[in-house]
Amino acid sequence: MSEEHFYEKIKSVLDEIAKARTDNKITFSEAVTVMGEAVDAGWHAWSALRDTDGHFGKLVEDVEEVYFEFIAPLDIVGIPNIVERAVDRVIGRMIRPALQGLRDLVD
């Protein structure tokens, strides 16, 4: 993957985050879209670096950090606030297995 394509992927993720954050709330559908974009960008970044496992762990940490910093703080429409933190943690914990599953599928 070219460096330009990599930055286009990252910009796509940031654009989806900005769009979802316009009203300081996020619907479940928006959260899934953003996470899909983040996983896709992460996958492309990892694909460029996949000759060593050390990069994969860093990639997962970066994707998790983006989720917890930009997405988790948003109010998810339709999910009661009393359980929303638990939902945020569950979604965040799905990132590593999702990327690992993609990695296993390709390797």
Overall description:
Helix 1 runs antiparallel to helix 2, helix 2 packs antiparallel against helix 3 (53-71) and helix 2 crosses helix 5 (95-106). The protein has one domain (3-106). With 107 residues, it is mainly alpha-helical. 79% of the residues lie in helices and 6% in strands. The protein has helices at residues 3-20, 28-49, 53-71, 81-93, 95-106; strands spanning 25-27, 75-77.
What value does the average pLDDT take?
77
Q: Please describe the biggest sheet, giving its number of strands, its sense, and whether it closes into a barrel.
A: 2 strands, parallel
User: Within the largest sheet, what's the order of strands?
Assistant: 1-2
Annotation field: number of helices: 5
Helical proportion? over 70%
Strand content: 5-15%
State the end-to-end CA separation: 17 Å
Question: Compute the gyration radius: what is it?
Answer: 14 Å
Number of strand elements: 2
Shape: globular
SS-based class? mainly alpha
The ordered string of helix (H) and strand (E) elements is HEHHEHH
Q: Which regions are unreliable across 5 or more consecutive residues at pLDDT < 50?
A: none
* Tally of discrete structural domains: 1
Question: What's a concise summary of this model?
Answer:
The chain has 107 residues and is mainly α.
Name the descriptors.
mainly alpha, globular, about 110 residues
SSE topology:
Elements: H1 3-20, E1 25-27, H2 28-49, H3 53-71, E2 75-77, H4 81-93, H5 95-106
Parallel strand pairs: 1-2
